[in-house]
Amino acid sequence: MIGESVGDSLTARPLVLYVDDERANRVVFEQSLGADFRIQSVADATAALAVLDTQEVAVLVTDMRMPGMSGEELLRIAKERKPSTIRMVVTAYADVDPILRAINEGLVARYIIKPWIRAELVQVLRWAIEAWTFSRDSMALHARLMETERLATLGSIAGMLVHDLKQPLMSLLINVDHLRELGKAAPTLQDALARAPLPEAERVRLGLLVDDLDPLTTDLRTSAMHLSSLIDGLRELSRPCDKSANLQAADPLPIVRHAMAVCQELVMSAHASIDYEGPCVLPRVRMSATELTQVLINLVQNSAQAVAARGTPQGKVSIVARTESNMVELCVRDDGVGMGPEVLGRVGTPFFTTRAEGTGLGLAQCQRLIGSAGGRFRIESEPGIGTTVTIVLPVAA
Ligand SMILES: Nc1ncnc2c1ncn2[C@@H]1O[C@H](COP(=O)(O)OP(=O)(O)OP(=O)(O)O)[C@@H](O)[C@H]1O
Ligand SMILES: [Mg+2]
To answer: Are 281 and 217 found together in one domain?
Structure first.
């Protein structure tokens, strides 16, 4: 058997699997074709099925009459399990019946009678590999088209929702403004509470709530305004491309603080803490405030979810900032579950998620926004250690 390591199979040439119970036939097949093709040969159908199950086989070439499972049965199972593998028969028996049956049932693409001629077999195998490669590539193309289709559908659904979302948001903003008025009256309310005939514990509880009113309503208002800009952004998507976003600039620090406040509850429910490390003043960056808010909230949420998934107490999420020449670097760092190379290679692909309730659009959106602002986006992660997402944005002129 011609050796092959599992690692090879990703980069190596397409694999031809040859099944024949006679050792001499296998040796001849390998020796005369091994220079042109990557060949693996096995002695029976059971071994062939094991290879089909564990490796990507481009062409299956089998003998018909073998002890145990026959070639015909093997072809039938292979067709069921691995329909894209091209199936061929090389046999010494020119019985017309099984040949016709196999061809009519679509079990084989070619039937070759022994003794075969090397040049002919080379040509047939080349054709089979080309056919297999073509169908594999067109399947990948098909999958990409389906994904584009899903995104387009999602886009049109979003378009329909935008209109309906604006209405409840407006009423939310009006009510939040009412509540803010109440927040401003906190000293009066505290006075009234001090005189009210209430049990002491109740007085303390209400007093704390009154104290929270002002910061809470301020946060609520900022979130509602953010939502409103997002909805406007969605509207923009359905219009011709507008370059004005590139001229926008934002002060990153208030946005960092807002993202931390919005995610505070999620971070706390993960038994983690969140902090900011960096200068007290940062230069303005060339990105709209709405988009930077969206990016940071997505990243902090991902970090909080990763810390929660790890399940250890005292997890940590940090936003670390630094400036370098005319760039601002913001890192969102966590000591959550981290990602292995398999996941890391796929994050940012729309709809890729490992979370049951995730949509898999968060990082795709972040990458798109940072890219269109002329920035850079990088993810580093290690399973069991944590993740750092770094965004680098140009300073606004
Ligand atoms: N900080 C992180 N630590 C570990 N894994 C992460 C982290 N950030 C992202 N991931 C992995 O990347 C996947 C994709 O993240 P992404 O934000 O794009 O989608 P999501 O969080 O699953 O869903 P949503 O669209 O709701 O954000 C996640 O499901 C998770 O497996
Ligand atoms: Mg996410």
So the answer is: no
Ligand 1, residues 295, 307, 335, 363: which to mutate, most atoms within 8 A of Cβ?
363
CATH number at residue 341: 3.30.565.10
Is residue 358 within 6 Å of ligand 1 at its C-beta? yes
Q: Does 139 map to a domain?
A: no
C-alpha torsion sign, points 44, 47, 52, 58: negative
User: Ligand 1 centre from 360 Cα, in Å?
Assistant: 6
Domain encompassing residue 221: 145-239
Same domain, 224 and 267: no
Ligand 1 within 6 A of 355 CB? yes
Q: Buried b vs exposed e over 59-90: b needs ≥16 C-beta within 10 Å?
A: bbbbbbebeebbbbebbbebbeeeeebbbbbb
98 shares a domain with 55: yes
Instruction: Note the ligand closest to the C-alpha atom of 361.
Output: 1
Report the domain count for the chain: 3
Residue 138 domain flag: no
387 lines ligand 1 (CB under 6 A): yes
Q: Are residues 203 and 59 in the same domain?
A: no
Q: What is the pLDDT along the chain (397 residues), one digit of tens a residue?
A: 333 333 344 457 999 999 999 999 999 999 999 999 999 999 999 999 999 999 999 999 999 888 999 998 999 999 999 988 999 988 776 666 777 777 777 788 777 877 888 988 898 899 889 888 887 877 777 677 666 666 766 666 666 677 678 778 888 988 998 898 888 899 999 999 999 999 999 999 999 999 999 889 988 999 998 888 888 877 766 554 444 545 689 999 999 988 888 888 888 888 899 999 999 999 999 998 888 988 999 999 999 999 999 998 889 999 999 998 899 999 999 999 999 999 999 998 878 899 988 888 889 888 888 988 999 999 999 999 999 999 999 999 8
Q: Ligand 1: does its nearest atom lie under 6 Å from the Cβ of 315? A: no
Q: How far is the CA of 358 from the centre of ligand 2 (A)?
A: 7
E strands in the chain: 15-19, 38-42, 57-62, 86-91, 110-113, 272-277, 315-324, 327-334, 376-382, 386-394
CA of 347 to the centre of ligand 1 (A): 7
> Are both 42 and 154 inside the same structural domain?
no
Counting ligands in written order, the one closest to the CA of 358 is: 1
Q: Report yes or no on 131 lying in a domain.
A: no
Q: Is residue 343 in contact with ligand 1, taking CB distance under 6 Å?
A: yes
Burial category of 259 from C-beta neighbours within 10 Å (exposed 0-12, middle 13-18, buried 19 and up): buried
- Domain boundary residue among 223, 239, 255? 239
At which of 190, 219, 239 does a domain end?
Answer: 239
Q: Rounded to the nearest 5 degrees, what angle is found at the Cα of 369, between the Cα atoms of 304 and 294?
A: 40
CA of residue 353 to ligand 1 center, whole Å: 6
Q: Which atom of ligand 1 lies nearest, measured to the CA of 334?
A: 1
